[in-house]
Q: What sequence folds into this?
């Protein structure tokens, strides 16, 4: 499948795989209708059937698992996130660290595969999803779909089932600033010993192999180009990354990246996932020759020219290291990015706001890239400005 095909597909096609039924009561009625009975006469089922689109029952079991995953609204620490973990990840034989990260080592390989279990949903629970005739999945009645990062969790779970070697880390609390990966980098860096490549499944769209995120370089051009070559036509290095958990491993792992998994407009009610692309990507990962990937970058090596271009000063003068701690390792920040109050000299709130406004005015293109990566467009900005 060409990576360009998702862009060419029409998202306006009327769904023929109709909505998932998120309410147990409605679900019960739907089951009765399939049996040809009056829905209102049905007795409550002894167990809940999978919440998959009714017309999608003929999908392969792996794809039905993906749709099931997308019905869970998973704010960090919520009951839904824990049920999601218990249902889809724990049965694979993972171990849990002190922070809650789920880890599984398959065979022997110098690669760490990365995803995260939390989503940006405003509440915990289950939601309805639609699967359109051309393969787009949406959650039309929710604040977001949650493909960020259910898509990454799904592909890692299926890779484990295929016995693809690597260290699999299902990170917790990524959306608050990479707190799960910060814990590993700070407290259990031995997990990263011998790891040459950290590859996250947490990037929008259909063709990106991220070289830069978190304000600096995470992988070499040689690694990115070779990975793109193995993934196929249309894939290309992308230096416009913002943040995912592999950014926390810059000081420990030579080649850290994030690759596209086929979702768009993440963190918004317009979020969508092109299911055929993700299924195709799973096949490409099964064929990937990890041992043939180059390892060029040295851990901790940065790209100051890139940081100056986008941010106006070296990363070391503006941000703490990727462990999320300050230089004397005594003050915990609120996440990988920290807060303005963590910087010295401590600015007042007003001064910090002025500094932020100056940075936005000086670097509008960088701000636009960050907003676009989080699915925030002109409409949201105008609504916030005039509400």
A:
């Amino acid at each position: 499948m060409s990576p360009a095909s998702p862009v060419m597909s029409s998202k306006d096609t009327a769904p023929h795989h109709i909505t998932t039924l998120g309410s147990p009561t409605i679900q019960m009625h739907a089951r009765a209708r399939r049996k040809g009975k009056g829905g209102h006469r049905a007795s409550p089922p002894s167990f809940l059937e999978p919440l998959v689109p009714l017309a999608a029952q003929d999908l392969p079991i792996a794809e039905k698992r993906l749709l099931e995953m997308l019905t869970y609204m998973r704010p960090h620490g919520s009951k839904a996130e824990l049920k999601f973990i218990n249902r889809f990840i724990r049965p694979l034989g993972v171990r849990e660290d002190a922070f809650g990260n789920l880890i599984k080592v398959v065979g022997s390989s110098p690669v760490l595969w990365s995803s995260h279990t939390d989503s940006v949903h405003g509440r915990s629970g289950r939601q309805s999803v639609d699967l359109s005739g051309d393969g787009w999945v949406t959650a039309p009645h929710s604040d977001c779909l949650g493909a960020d990062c259910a898509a990454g969790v799904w592909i890692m779970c299926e890779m484990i089932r295929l016995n693809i070697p690597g260290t699999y880390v299902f990170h917790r609390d990524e959306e608050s600033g990479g707190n799960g990966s910060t814990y590993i980098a700070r407290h259990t860096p031995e997990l990263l010993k011998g790891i040459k490549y950290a590859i996250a499944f947490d990037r929008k769209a259909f063709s990106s192999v991220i070289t830069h995120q978190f304000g600096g370089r995470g992988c070499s051009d040689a690694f990115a180009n070779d990975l793109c070559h193995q993934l196929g036509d249309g894939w290309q290095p992308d230096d416009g990354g913002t943040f995912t958990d592999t950014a926390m491993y810059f000081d420990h792992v030579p080649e850290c990246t994030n690759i596209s998994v086929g979702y768009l407009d993440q963190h918004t009610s317009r979020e969508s996932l092109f299911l055929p692309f993700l299924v195709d990507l799973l096949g490409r990962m099964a064929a990937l020759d990890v041992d043939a990937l180059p390892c060029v970058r040295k851990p901790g090596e940065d790209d100051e020219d890139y940081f100056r271009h986008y941010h106006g000063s070296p990363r070391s003068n503006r941000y703490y290291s990727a462990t999320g701690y300050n230089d004397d390792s005594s003050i915990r920040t609120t996440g990988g990015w920290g807060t303005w109050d963590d910087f010295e000299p401590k600015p007042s709130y007003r001064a910090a706001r002025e500094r932020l406004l100056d940075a936005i005015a000086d670097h509008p293109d960088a701000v636009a890239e960050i907003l676009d990566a989080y699915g925030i467009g002109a409409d949201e900005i105008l609504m916030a400005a005039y509400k």
